[in-house]
Design brief:
Blueprint: E1 4-5, E2 16-24, E3 33-34, E4 38-45, E5 47-52, E6 55-59, E7 64-67, E8 73-78, E9 83-91
Parallel strand pairs: 1-3
Antiparallel strand pairs: 2-9, 4-7, 4-9, 5-6, 5-8
Length: 93
């Protein structure tokens, strides 16, 4: 599996970046990627499979995940008929 290296820019005047995504499951699959920032990810609604490093598990509504810097990860949603919502906070050490 190829790993994409993501470049993250902090929000203006801030030391971190926040993203609130509301997208259909069919458009929400993320590529396997990594970046030097920490990532705090809250699944507001949606279900699917997460791949973090060499670990694979399921995710669902209310899950909270902290991903360390440089750790490759991806999310693959299930059920393309619902809207997936997630809040992401990315920050450096």
């Amino acid at each position: 599996m190829n790993i994409e290296h993501e470049f993250i820019r902090e929000d203006n005047g801030s030391s971190f970046r926040t993203v609130n995504q509301k997208i259909s499951a069919e458009k929400s699959s993320s590529p396997y990627h990594c970046h030097p920032e920490y990532e705090l990810l809250c699944i507001v609604s949606g279900k699917g499979t997460r791949h973090v490093g060499n670990h694979t598990s399921n995710y669902e509504d209310g899950d909270l995940l902290l991903i360390g810097p440089g750790l490759a990860h991806a999310m693959t949603p299930l059920n393309s008929k619902i809207i997936h919502e997630q809040v992401i906070v990315q920050f450096k050490t």
